[in-house]
Design a protein that fits this description.
Length: 190
């Protein structure tokens, strides 16, 4: 199998690292060679956080170049747009519709861009945009946005739901497991 590339992008503190661990575990359990690389910006201060997940028969590097991502999973709308140049032709974006103002918007130096989903679609990108915050709250915690996104991403992977749940059981602390299973289901069925 050719190597597939997934970028998980967001703002510091949103849970993108747990999402990448879940995806990495799922793919390892399925028998793929997997490389995960975490790139932290100013994650502690609300800056961009990017994680690369690459999988296939044999993966030699954890880095994804521009135009090579099969999937971009985004915790925030502007982050999806920011990393759009990394999406390959025919690639899929799965994004939360949440908008978190970056520093230039907070200080009044810039405006948050409008109609980002439509602008991304206008480039030819396939965009699956859902309100993950609402679904995470329904599951029991706004912190479950990451698992809602993984549930949504599961639509695009030929893996049984049981494999996703098994990977979740391996990495999510027991006291949060039921809530995360619910979050996964809500994202999957959104």
């Amino acid at each position: 199998m050719e190597t597939k590339n997934v970028m998980i992008v967001g703002v510091g503190g949103q849970g993108s690292l747990l999402a990448s661990k879940l995806l990495g575990r799922l793919l390892l359990d399925a028998g793929y060679d997997v490389k995960v690389s975490e790139v932290h910006g100013m994650s502690q201060r609300g800056g961009s956080v990017v994680t690369y997940v690459r999988y296939g028969d044999k993966v030699y590097s954890p880095v994804i170049d521009e135009g090579q991502a099969d999937y971009i999973v985004s915790f925030e709308l502007l982050e999806a747009a920011r990393w759009l140049s990394y999406l390959k032709e025919g690639g899929q974006i799965v994004t939360n519709i949440q908008q978190i103002d970056p520093m230039p918007v907070i200080t009044g130096a810039a405006q948050y861009p409008e109609n980002l989903v439509e602008k991304m679609q206008a480039t030819g990108a396939k965009v699956d945009a859902i309100d993950c915050v609402k679904l995470a709250q329904e599951a029991g915690s706004v912190k479950a946005v990451n698992i809602v996104l993984m549930g949504r991403l599961s639509h695009y992977f030929d893996m049984p739901e049981e494999a996703w749940i098994k990977a979740m059981e391996a990495i999510v602390p027991a006291k949060f497991l039921e809530m995360n299973k619910k979050a996964f289901e809500l994202g999957k069925n959104a």
